């Protein structure tokens, strides 16, 4: 005779420690909330924007914030709020695509350098050190000046400036992971180096790469705004946050809103990405996760 009946309830799903730590971090929700809000406003800009961002009205030029124009108008009579919403599309797209390209190229170089080692590793890391010796803005300025001002060239210029950090971040854990026993077992079974790097090494270092990507996306948005401010961004009249600051600089004394609102948009976006990146880093780090 048994003392207790068998437990037939389904087994509980084990919590993901990273997601659980991210869920318990209150600051992460601030970053996630800001990013989601900004992305949604950018996606639905045609529905949210009260005016056409390219519509000019000389009679309405340089109007301060009012009921009709919440963020005022610029020197051409265009609605600043509408241009901010459409400009978010350009800034976020450039930031995301440039970081994605830098992540793919840089991580690939870093994994190859860490796995192959030897002369190839020295050559790749030497190139990375040279690229890191230049300030990000200066390197982006040189590349953008050579390629010319356009949406595609701006993505390429910013991606080149951010390739080196991803290569360095991917190389170090690759060297550590390739010495583990299951990697040696894979080699003994005849797995190709590309299979080992893509199937067994990449998933183990992907979290570090994603954290760096969230942090460097904030840097990409700042770089785009800086390049647009000096005239190497997307060509007018396409609205971008950096371009709006540059256009408002000429009217800074009698049109403070032309600079304040685009600057605040960049500030909140960069702040949200940094908060999210720090939260991801703390959630992935086992020591920080255990302390929380």
UniProtKB/TrEMBL annotation:
<dbReference type="Pfam" id="PF12911">
    <property type="entry name" value="OppC_N"/>
</dbReference>
<dbReference type="InterPro" id="IPR000515">
    <property type="entry name" value="MetI-like"/>
</dbReference>
<feature type="transmembrane region" description="Helical">
    <location>
        <begin position="27"/>
        <end position="51"/>
    </location>
</feature>
<protein>
    <submittedName>
        <fullName>ABC transporter permease</fullName>
    </submittedName>
</protein>
<dbReference type="InterPro" id="IPR035906">
    <property type="entry name" value="MetI-like_sf"/>
</dbReference>
<keyword id="KW-1133">Transmembrane helix</keyword>
<dbReference type="GO" id="GO:0005886">
    <property type="term" value="C:plasma membrane"/>
</dbReference>
<feature type="transmembrane region" description="Helical">
    <location>
        <begin position="254"/>
        <end position="277"/>
    </location>
</feature>
<keyword id="KW-0813">Transport</keyword>
<keyword id="KW-0812">Transmembrane</keyword>
<dbReference type="Pfam" id="PF00528">
    <property type="entry name" value="BPD_transp_1"/>
</dbReference>
<dbReference type="InterPro" id="IPR050366">
    <property type="entry name" value="BP-dependent_transpt_permease"/>
</dbReference>
<feature type="transmembrane region" description="Helical">
    <location>
        <begin position="92"/>
        <end position="117"/>
    </location>
</feature>
<dbReference type="InterPro" id="IPR025966">
    <property type="entry name" value="OppC_N"/>
</dbReference>
<feature type="domain" description="ABC transmembrane type-1">
    <location>
        <begin position="88"/>
        <end position="277"/>
    </location>
</feature>
<dbReference type="GO" id="GO:0055085">
    <property type="term" value="P:transmembrane transport"/>
</dbReference>
<keyword id="KW-1003">Cell membrane</keyword>
<keyword id="KW-0472">Membrane</keyword>
<feature type="transmembrane region" description="Helical">
    <location>
        <begin position="205"/>
        <end position="234"/>
    </location>
</feature>
<comment type="similarity">
    <text>Belongs to the binding-protein-dependent transport system permease family.</text>
</comment>
């Amino acid at each position: 005779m048994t003392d207790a009946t068998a437990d037939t309830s389904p087994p509980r799903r084990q919590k993901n420690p990273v997601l659980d730590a991210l869920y318990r971090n209150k600051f992460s929700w601030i970053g996630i909330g800001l990013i989601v809000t900004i992305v949604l406003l950018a996606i639905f800009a045609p529905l949210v924007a009260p005016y056409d961002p390219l519509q000019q009205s000389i009679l309405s030029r340089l109007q301060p914030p009012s009921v009709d124009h919440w963020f005022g108008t610029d020197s051409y009579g265009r609605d600043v709020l509408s241009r901010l919403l459409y400009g978010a599309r350009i800034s976020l797209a450039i930031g995301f695509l440039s970081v994605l390209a830098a992540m793919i190229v840089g991580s690939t170089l870093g994994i190859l350098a860490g796995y192959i080692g030897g002369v190839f590793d020295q050559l790749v890391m030497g190139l990375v050190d040279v690229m890191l010796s230049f300030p990000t803005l200066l390197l982006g300025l040189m590349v953008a000046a050579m390629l010319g001002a356009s949406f595609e060239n701006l993505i390429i210029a910013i991606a080149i400036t951010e390739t080196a950090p991803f290569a360095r971040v991917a190389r170090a854990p690759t060297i550590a992971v390739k010495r583990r026993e299951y990697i040696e077992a894979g080699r003994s079974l005849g797995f190709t180096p590309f299979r080992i790097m893509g199937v067994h090494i990449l998933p183990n270092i992907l979290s570090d790469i994603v954290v760096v990507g969230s942090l460097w996306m904030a840097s990409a948005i700042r770089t785009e705004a800086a390049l647009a401010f000096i005239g190497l961004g997307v060509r007018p009249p396409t609205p971008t946050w950096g371009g709006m600051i540059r256009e408002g600089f000429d009217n800074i004394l009698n049109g403070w809103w032309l600079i304040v609102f685009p600057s605040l948009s960049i500030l909140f976006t960069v702040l949200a990405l940094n908060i999210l990146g720090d939260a991801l880093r703390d959630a992935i780090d086992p020591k920080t996760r255990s302390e929380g």
